[in-house]
Amino acid sequence: MGVRHSSTVTENVLQTLKWEVENISKLSENQVICGHKLYFSRFCRGNFKLKIINDCLHIYLHNKSDTDLKTECSISYLTIQNEESVKLGHWILEVPQNKCVIVSEIENFTTEFMKTLPKDTLILQFELKTEASYKDLLPLLSGPIPGGYKWFDERKRLHEDLSLMHNDENTDVSLKIGDEIVHAHWSILCARSPYFKNMYRIQKKEDPKNSVVITDISAKAIREFVAFLYTGIFEDVLYENTNLDEVYDLYRAADKYEVLDLRKYCGYSLMARISVENAVQILNWADIHNDKEVKTAAMDFVSSNFVAITDTDGWKKLTDENPKLAGKVIAVCTKKLKNSK
Q1: Per its UniProt record, what SMART domains does this chain match (predicted)?
Q2: Residue 303 and residue 271: Cα distance in Å, rounded?
Q3: Please, which residues bridge with residue 10 across strands?
C-alpha cells in the first residue's frame, strides 16, 4: 500500500532592502501603493504596501504565497537632515498564507512631516530575517506489521541509491567535468532532460558514447543537477550556504539542459538573494536566459531602487557591456516617473 506523507521544510533568508516612494505628497487618503515583488524564499513571495488613513501612514506586509511566513523586520526611513536614518522599530511577525498584515505606522504623516523627507521621497529601509515553512510531500512505502504500518522515508532510500553515481557500477554514462566524473544513467538523463534525450538519439545513430564532456559548468553544479534529476529535490544546503555565483551556475545547467522546474527553483533562489549590489547582475542573467519571470521581478527591483543602483559597479558594467538592457531600465524608470505625476 502506498501513501503520501507531508513533512515540514523550513528556509531562512536574510535580506536588506530599500524602497523609494517618489512624490509622496501626492499620495491621497486611502490610496494604496504597492512595492516591488519580493522573494522571501524559493516558495514564498509578497510585497510591502503603503496606505494613508487619517494622516497616519500604514506599512503592510502582504504574503502572496501558499505558505505561512515568519519574519523579524526592522524598518527605518531617511530624513533630509544629513540623510539621518530614523528607526521605526523592530517586530516579529507571523503572516498567514495569502494574507496582509500591518507592520508599522508613521503618525502625523502631514504636509509638514513630508517636508523633512529628501526631494518629496519617502526612502524606507528594511532588514528582514525570514523563516518560511512549507509542506514537502514525500512518497513513503508502507507494509503490514503487527499493530499497524511501518513507514520508510523515501529520501533515505534515494540517498542510498544515489551513492551508485559515485562509481561506475550499474551506470552507463559518465559526465566529465575537468578531472571529475559524475556517473549516471542514460535512461534518467533522457527522461528528465530534452537536451540529453536529443543527444542520445544522435549518438545512438552515429557512434554511441558512454561519456559526455562538460566544460562550461562546474562539477559542483553538475552533481547538484544530476541529483535533482534523480530525486526532484532542490537541496536546501545549496540554497542557504552557497554564494550567488554558485546558484547561478546551477541555474545555467538547468537552462542549458532544459530542466525547467529546476530553473524555476534557482530563479526563486536568485530573487530571494537580490540586493542593490547584485540586482543588475541578476537582471542581466535573466535577460541572457530569456527568463521572463525573474527578469520582470529584477527589473521591478532595479527601477524601484534606481538611484542607489546607479552608484554600483554592476550598473557601470551593464552600461558598457549591455547598453540595450540599460536603456530598457532607464525607459522603465522614466515611465514610472511619468505615471507617478
Answers
A1: BTB (SM00225)
A2: 15
A3: 133
Span 259-303, pLDDT tens digits = 998 998 888 888 878 888 899 999 999 999 999 989 988 898 888
Is the CB of residue 231 less than 8 Å from the CB of residue 261? Answer: no
- Rounded to whole angstroms, the Cα distance separating 200 from 150 reads 40
- The per-type count for the chain, helices as H runs and strands as E runs, is 13, 13
Three cell numbers written together for 341 = 505625476
Cell numbers for 13? 533568508
Nearest residue to 184 (alpha-carbon basis) of 194, 202, 196: 196
> Interior CA angle at 180 toward 270 and 204, to 5°?
95
Decide if 70 contacts 132 (C-beta within 8 A).
yes
Rounded to 5°, the CA angle 236-242-243 comes to: 140
DSSP state of 166: G
Measure the CA–CA gap between 211 and 258, rounded to whole angstroms. Answer: 19
How far apart (Å, rounded) are the C-alpha atoms in residues 294 and 323?
A: 19
